[in-house]
């Protein structure tokens, strides 16, 4: 009785092993009644234990930062836009860079969708198409590169040259070519509006159109306001429109996101 009480206080009772450890039976035929307690305790100390080893959880990759995390750390809205694309794009997708510029966004899209995807790029300037092609070749090995189609053409021809309802991401980065000597060559309001209208047809259900509008150069504010007007009129049954603006940085770009709602969503959710 005393032996059982002591073993119980220690968390163990002979014949009732712990679920995490298995102990050898505490029996000894040569033990006298008087020394039974001492013998059992000695055997308890010498008992061999078999401990279950739980599998080590597999290491998980850190989640990419979301928009709020990026903005709170002072990241640029260009980086925030890329974070949105990364959360939406899947391997093998189709993406459109509507304003290639120096190719930074084109490379990011190509890296994200991988070798089985397809990236379309648009720019009216030969220097931009050339710079984008060189950047793609220098940053992506041939076997890692998706299919790349670069058009030296106005992005208003996007639907004509890409097709309808197939791109997971359509990205605009309005304004002038970064690093260009002539900053008077900028995206124009009328062609930008036509391009946004085309993008509404090119993007697939569940995809996103991102528009970075710059207001610090001549004509930039008017272009932004015109784009904002047409996207504000989109049906909420099919589109979710948002705007991210840094109020204490009045010349910073403004990020507009247009999410095309999934056709498979029930009507009661889409309304």
TrEMBL record:
Pfam families: rRNA_methylase. InterPro entries: MnmM_MeTrfase, SAM-dependent_MTases_sf. It comes from the Eukaryota. SUPFAM superfamilies: S-adenosyl-L-methionine-dependent methyltransferases. Gene3D superfamilies: Vaccinia Virus protein VP39. PANTHER family: S-ADENOSYL-L-METHIONINE-DEPENDENT METHYLTRANSFERASES SUPERFAMILY PROTEIN, TRNA (MNM(5)S(2)U34)-METHYLTRANSFERASE, CHLOROPLASTIC. This is rRNA methylase. It comes from Volvox africanus.
